[in-house]
Amino acid sequence: MPKDRPVTRLDLKPADPMSEATAKYFAKCEEKLGLVPNVLKAYSFDDGKLRAFTEMYNELMLAPSGLSKLEREMIAVAVSSVNRCYYCLTAHGAAVRTLSGVPELGEQLVMNAQVADLDPRQRAILDFAVKLTETPQNMGETDRQALRDAGFSDHDIWDIASVAAFFNMTNRVAAATEMEPNPEYHSTAR
Predict the structure, then answer these.
(1) Is the pTM of this model over 0.90?
(2) What is the Cα–Cα distance from 85 to 68, expressed in whole angstroms?
């Protein structure tokens, strides 16, 4: 893929000049990740939207939770698989491969989570997230109880639902704008 390929199909230019806060955040991304994720570049046309996105992402994906970082990334991939989100499948599939140390797991979740060798806790999480994505109107107490039976608290259930909902939103923005994943994700942890 050519390096000068646009981040999205929308003609959104980064704020000029870039705010000091955004410049610092991008520098931190470069330091920690070795890149600035294209999703952040896409949001950089508006500091308020970028801040809202990153604050929500960081709270859901990085803050203390009864869910591990890997479990949250697995939700991102399962939801993105249902939605066929190229950006998130590429980026979060790489994260699952890295965090799990099992490259096959990332690929299985991208292609078909049903073939993945998951423990009962992981299976319960992904079944819930997929149902919430495909048929949210059919969610009920039975679904929540299945998570409780797998050892999750009601707070954990809130977190599972929130991560799934966040990625349903981001999948739709990525699809609407034809957001391109960073090329580096394709070779991560393979």
Answers:
(1) yes
(2) 23
